[in-house]
Amino acid sequence: MTVKKAVIPAAGLGTRFLPATKAMPKEMMPILNKPTIQYIVEEAIASGIEDIIIVTGKGKRAIEDHFDHAFELEQLLADKGKSAALEEVLSSSTVPNIHYIRQKEPKGLGHAIWCARKFVGDEPFAVLLGDDIVVNPVPCLKQLIDEYTRVEASVLGVMQVPDEDTYKYGIMEPLEKNNRSYSALRFVEKPQPGTSPSNLAIIGRYVLTPDIFPLLDEHHIGIGGEIQLTDAIEKLNQTTPAYGYEFDGRRYDVGDILGFLDTNIEFALANSNYREKVIEMLQHKMDTIISQHR
After folding, report:
1. Strand bridging mode 5-9 / 51-56
2. What residues contact 225, with CB distance under 8 A and at least 6 apart?
3. Mean pLDDT along residues 189-214
4. To the nearest whole percent, how much of the chain has pLDDT over 70?
């Protein structure tokens, strides 16, 4: 069965960006002039997804507004002949088939996915997390969908991370490797430092079968007192194999301040409208710092 539905969890509190996220969804924080969640939605559409459900929470109304029409703004831009700006605005408001559901309590990623169960039904579906932007000519999610078509089982995007960072991720202990694909012995959510079974981390892209929902329906409480998606995948893997796929592409972690800053700088350097000015600005900053420490 073809993967045509995607779930984007966007109900998190964004505590690493406080106080900015006190009143603004972290998913609306921009990379250059585009909110992070728009990059995620665009990847889903470029991968062949036709219906998207965004799981929101309290204070996330700005996400819905962003993907809706702003008629007064659009008319104003049209009247002033600002066609380029109008095209940018319309690029978000003309995205087809975006739906919303609210996660009423912050019970974890697994619970957020569970909230979308009626939308998904009995179809395979994609999950895209907003903390990860992946840049590649072939979208990361499209790579996973292609692998799902080959193995006809759940597929998780994975990548090698430094050993000292494994505690931040769900970790896959691989069994066998076939090109970029790994069969899994087990999955562990955020292992304690020094106990990780590998450094193969699950990054925020998944293609899952609907078999995951009965396991999420158990509402098992895992690490951090939350319902963890990795725990449900580990249970699923005991009866139905789940695979890791080491995707091709540059992954950007926009889930913390340093990663967010790094992503903005790299995207600016890759943009012909900003590149020269940004290089000049950074060079000036470095020269100033050096001169101050002589």
Report:
1. parallel
2. none
3. 94
4. 100
Query: 106 φ, ψ to 5°?
Result: -80, 85
When computed from its CA atoms, the radius of gyration of the chain, rounded to whole angstroms, is: 20
Q: Tokens for 15?
A: 């505590």
Number of residues that this document lists for the chain:
294
For residue range 84-109, what is the model confidence (pLDDT) as tens digits?
999 988 988 888 789 999 998 888 99
Task: Find out whether 166 and 239 touch, Cβ atoms under 8 Å.
Answer: no
pLDDT tens profile 16-35: 999 999 889 999 999 999 99
Q: How many angstroms separate the CA atoms of 64 and 55, rounded?
A: 11
Distance CA(182)–CA(177), nearest Å, equals 4
Place of tokens 């304690």: 192
- For residue 163, what are the contacts with CB-CB under 8 A and spacing of at least 6? 196, 199
